[in-house]
Design a protein that fits this description.
single chain; alpha+beta; 4-stranded antiparallel sheet; 2 helices; elongated
């Protein structure tokens, strides 16, 4: 039994001596992880900004469709109004032949640094009671921009169709 006890003590000593990592191994691993993070972060940041812009475009398209649908279902003119630092869209309706606009629904707040950089023509998106663009133009283009300067355009045709470019 004595030899068995000494074998156990010897194996415990060797296990204790090998447990853990040396300081050098930890520093090398941390350096490699830091280098990978440094290389990965810029591309990850760019991907996040691109995703936010795409999400903003999709939300804007949905909101334009709500405005058109409101015009048709209510048999009134409807417009999309831009406010609050070019980051908030609202839908307003007015009876045909009047200039008294009333905001309906919940405004859409673009987030993540996405803004509306331009609307062309400047009088914006106005739908008649048949769902057609009625601002005297054949199409309206809304340009959205993210914090890094990337842009996407949403074009609303005369008949109310929406296209992304």
């Amino acid at each position: 039994m004595g030899s068995r006890s000494s074998e156990l003590k010897r194996s415990l000593r060797t296990i204790k001596g090998r447990a853990g990592f040396t300081l050098m191994e930890v520093l090398v691993t941390a350096g490699i992880a830091g280098a990978l993070a440094t290389v990965t972060f810029p591309s990850l940041s760019t991907a996040i900004q691109a995703h936010r812009l795409t999400a903003g475009v999709r939300s804007t398209i949905g909101y334009i469709r709500v405005a058109r649908s409101s015009a048709v279902t209510r048999s009134k003119q409807a417009q999309v109004v831009l406010s609050a630092g070019n980051t908030t869209l609202s839908v307003q309706v007015a009876p045909v032949g009047t200039t008294s606009w009333v905001t309906i629904g919940t405004p859409l707040v673009l987030d993540g640094g996405v803004t509306v950089s331009s609307v062309s023509p400047a009088n914006g998106i106005v739908f008649d009671q048949l769902g057609r663009v009625s601002n005297g133009s054949s199409a309206v283009t809304v340009t959205l921009q993210n914090a890094r300067g990337g842009t996407r355009q949403v074009t609303v045709s005369f008949l109310g169709g929406v296209d992304i470019s």
